[in-house]
Amino acid sequence: MSAKLPFEIKEIEAKGILSKCGIPGIDFVVNPYIGCRFGCKYCYASFMGRFVGKKVSDWGEYVYPKINAPELLAKEIERKLPNKGKGKEIFLSSVTDPYQGLEAKYRLTRRCLEVLADWEFAGTLSILTKSNLVTRDIDILKRFRQAVVGLTVTSADDGISRYFEKYAPSVSERFEALRKLNQAGLQTYAFIGPLLPHFVADEAGLEKVFQKLAEVGTKDVYVEHLNLSSYIRGRLMDEMKGTDKNIVAKFYSSQSKAYREDLEKLVKKLVEKYEMNLLLDLVIFHREFQAHHRD
Predict the structure, then answer these.
(1) Among the CATH numbers 3.30.70.60, 3.20.20.70, 3.40.50.150, 3.30.110.30, which is that of 8-294?
(2) Nearest one of 90, 17, 9, 18 to 52, comparing CA atoms
């Protein structure tokens, strides 16, 4: 009798792969997988489950590789990206991690990058991941006219990252990945978010993150407040059952304007101290940010 897999893997064939993107400043997105094994408790992308018959609580327990993604991309770029995509930005990925563990086997992200590089894509390639596996593809990334690689870091403490990002590589591995990318001459950024109340949203904890980024040579940062939409809040609170009530209260207070303003002052102070660049020149609050760009 075969052993049961720890999570569901189902190979699928996608109908499209190069999709228009609603994220401000990004034109197209490529998501080579549905689902993400990293299963981070605060992940907004957990809503994706409804498209494949899964519940929000199932996030992290299924991954569907789009096995025809590279072939589809090769066809779609010809039609959707005139002038070799000059002036356009392609993002990997918005609702999955392009370098989650299965990428080591399926190599869908790498093959999509090869398609774009061989085609001589002339726009900006942007990547966001929590995985040091991205360093495997430094050879391809260096072929692009402009490639920007971001690593998400929510703490400088591996214990905290393990608590909320159970199956993702440790933050120490992510910092090391940024170091290697910088040494290779690639443009990098850190996505510091969400700012987890009590754990890192205090001066000492947050400063450790900035110190580590300075050590590895990353100067550009996005910073985002915690998104406590109802479906995210439910997953977080389930994870925190039995936790000190004062800590739970901190999570709820993180949504208040006063709390966010105080935290933003701290972020800007640290940005100035470590001579970094706060991209967008603000700390992103998901609900307000999306509403502003819809108007």
Answers:
(1) 3.20.20.70
(2) 9
